[in-house]
Amino acid sequence: MTGKRKKGIVISAIAFTLAAAAGCQKTAVTEDTRTEAGITIYDEQDVFIRGMIREVFQMVQKEDGSFPDLELEMQDAKNDQTTQEDQIQRYISLQYDVLCVNLVDRTSAASVIDKAKQENLPVIFFNRQPVQSDMELYDRAYYLGSDAEESARLQAEIVLDAWRENPESIDANGDGVVSYVILEGQRGHQDTALRTEYSVKALEEGGMQLKKIEGGSASFERSKAEELMERWLTQEGFEVELVLANNDEMALGALEAIEKCGAKGIQVVGIDGTDDGKKAVQEGRMLGTVVSDQKLYAETLLKMIEAVGKGENLTEKLEHTDGKYVWIPWEKYTG
User: Fold this and answer.
1) For residue range 33-53, what is the model confidence (pLDDT) as tens digits?
2) Dihedral sign of CA atoms 64, 67, 73, 79 in order
3) Phi-psi region of 95 (alpha: psi -120 to 50; beta: other; left: phi over 0)
């Protein structure tokens, strides 16, 4: 791409305020060496995404100059597909070197790829994974994320570890069957389907007998999970021993409903390892969570931008790389 233009601001903040970017300290970066990237996120209200983007801002602005050649603009699509399409088109028209997309609708990936391919513009999808057939449409399309199946299996391991050490900690009534509910994320999101399927599958493979009491989507949102869990808890004859939540925000919403209703003997486990989620585990309110390191996630995204912007081979530059895919590992967290 040619005809790059100077920008007065190195980093353009999205809806929430992070470290001030107005006092640019990268004016010494030359036109020839810098890489300019446009980043659009699906919704800054997503706690995990907000934390990861905060890390991106902090790393780019570090005084040690870890990423001296990067200039970023980030915008929030506010969970609106049309808004995100407009942001992507703007980045393309301004001739950015790299496009980074946290998709509102993963089924729109083919359209994004087509636009990027026409301009020979590398595109990095992150956190919300396009289907493989779309990724195969363009050799400069990449994905950064964490394996959803792995997160579900580790979530199950947290439960199984506690159950094997003390069965009554999970099977509160001691009848040999663990009654559970599952709080699912957004419909159509690949993590929702995989976390829902494999957490239950791994528990059964671990020898646990299960009885599903209820399940439903709370769209990864704490307030919706609280509302749903409270509705279940107030049903006549409702008894449950385990809550499997597709993310920490929904796990925390379930906890709030449980505590409000005064319910006892219910274990809750989440995924993501947010600050609030880990705090709840430390306080003994939540059994555990599965952590995806936000700092590593942010650093890896920046390294990917550098590499693909310069046409470098990802496999040679990064760990946990599988061709066009870069994976951030998960870890169990039990406080």
Assistant:
1) 789 999 999 999 999 999 999
2) negative
3) left
Q: What is the identity of the amino acid at 78?
A: K
Token couple for 153? 């299996």
Q: Which of 299, 266, 282 is nearest to 53 (CA)?
A: 299
Token pair 């006549």: residue:
236
Residue 7: is its pLDDT beyond 50? no
Residue 175: strand, helix, or coil: coil
Q: How many helices (H) and strands (E) does the chain have?
A: 11, 14
Give the count of beta carbons closer than 10 Å to the beta carbon of residue 37: 24
Q: Which two tokens stand for residue 219?
A: 């769209």
Q: Distance between CA 250 and CA 220 in Å, rounded?
A: 6
Instruction: Yes or no: say if 29 and 88 are a contact pair by the CB < 8 Å rule.
Output: no
Q: How many CA atoms lie within 13 A of 125 on its CB side?
A: 27
Helices 148-165 & 190-205, crossing angle to 10 degrees? Answer: 30
Structure tokens at 271: 């995924």
Nearest of 239, 268, 252, 48 to residue 155 by alpha carbon: 268
d(CA 99, CA 38): 5
Residue 272 is classified by DSSP as B
Please list, in sequence order, all residues whose beta carbon lies within 8 angstroms of the beta carbon of residue 145, skipping any fewer than 6 positions away: 126, 127, 128, 129, 325, 326, 327, 328
How does pLDDT run across 229-275, given as a tens digit for each residue? 999 999 999 999 999 999 999 999 999 999 999 999 999 999 999 99
Locate tokens 């992150």: which residue?
126
Q: How far apart, in whole angstroms, are the C-alpha atoms of residue 294 and residue 275? A: 10
Three-state SS for 327?
Answer: strand
Give the separation between CA 22 and CA 12, rounded to whole angstroms: 8
Q: How far is CA 125 from the centre of its chain?
A: 12
Distance CA 305, CA 99 (A): 9
Token pair 């947290």 in the structure block, residue: 158
Return the closest-CA partner of residue 247 out of 230, 265, 222, 227. 222
Give the largest CA-CA distance in the chain.
71
Does residue 31 surpass a pLDDT of 50?
yes
